[in-house]
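hey so u asked for the seq, here:
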Amino acid sequence: LQLSLAALRHEQIRPNGEKLLFDSDDLAGSTPELVNLKQHIGTTLALIRVDGYGRTLEVKHGSAAKYEAEPPFALVLPAQAPREGQGWVRKFHVVLEPPHGTGERHAAEQQVAVSKIADHRATLAITTTIVNPPASAQERLPLLQHEPRGQAVFDVAAGRLQRVHWTIDRTIEGHQGAGSSYQFASTYTEEFVEAK
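ran it, structure tokens below
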């Protein structure tokens, strides 16, 4: 599996209201400090070997720790075909690499439940959690982005992930003393598109 970005739009709003924007389709409208992100468009970001269940077997290019925590197809399937009411848990570790850490490992798990199957498509509810998060608010901050929850649609007949939609909306109170708070909000959608 060779992963690359065909296009990217990244928008961040800072606490002071300042908006940072990178849009590969509108470099002129992007924040000047972020325009250098264009170097990542169209280049190989990862080269990975996966099995039929979505498990990463080998990372030839890219971060092995990243693809342990975030499988290339969002989830790992069980040995049998998904059926309604079925559920499973994938245990793994989140490794905090620089700039967010120095290799600290945190136990995590991804819970998957098949909520329905219709027209050969299984709808899966997915929740990812850090098993024993650090007590310190500061140490929990970089882990928030590793706790997505959402829904995936798996095409059972074709044997492929059709769509995944993740959201994260978490707030940590008191991260810089009394009265302070830190919110991490993210929405991510990936959808299979037939090649033309």
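The first helix runs from residue 64 to 69. The chain has a mean pLDDT of 92.
lmk if thats what u needed
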